[in-house]
Specification:
KH_dom-like_a/b; elongated; about 30% strand; 3-stranded antiparallel sheet; two-stranded antiparallel sheet; single chain; OsmC/Ohrsf; 3 helices; about 130 residues
């Protein structure tokens, strides 16, 4: 089954390395890192990718714990990445708060690895690019 998303829009900001991004009525910004000549005030594209996986992980774990009625009180995710020419490595660490059994923690870790974005990142990506008319 093919799933399509609403278009994410991006626009350059005159006199700046930052860009304005939007999806429907939501707005946010991105910029180059300070080491690359940006202001350092907005997340860079890699930060946005990493934060998307963090958010998806937390939301998925919370929804599943609620459905299973696990005593989950909080979820914290820390993610760092490094990359070389062949691999983009993400190291994700999850902290679960609440009176959870080891079996429940193991189940929530399994679910974290099945969050939709985690699954998407394991797929083959195809990107087409064309000039808009």
């Amino acid at each position: 089954m093919t799933q399509s998303s609403a278009p994410v829009q991006g626009r350059s900001i005159a006199g700046s390395t930052a860009v304005d991004l939007s999806l429907k009525d939501e707005r946010w910004r991105a910029d180059l890192s300070a080491s690359m000549g940006g202001s350092g005030q907005d997340p860079d594209p890699h930060d946005l990718l990493d934060s998307a996986l963090v958010a998806c992980t937390i939301l998925t774990v919370q929804m599943y714990a609620k459905r299973k009625q696990y005593p989950l009180e909080s979820v914290q995710v820390s993610l760092v990445h490094d990359e070389d020419d062949a691999v983009y490595r993400m190291d994700r660490r999850i902290t679960l708060g609440g009176a959870l059994s080891q079996q429940q923690k193991d189940d929530l870790l399994r679910v974290a690895n099945a969050c939709p974005l985690h699954k998407a990142l394991h797929k083959k990506f195809e990107i087409t690019t064309a000039l808009a008319s």
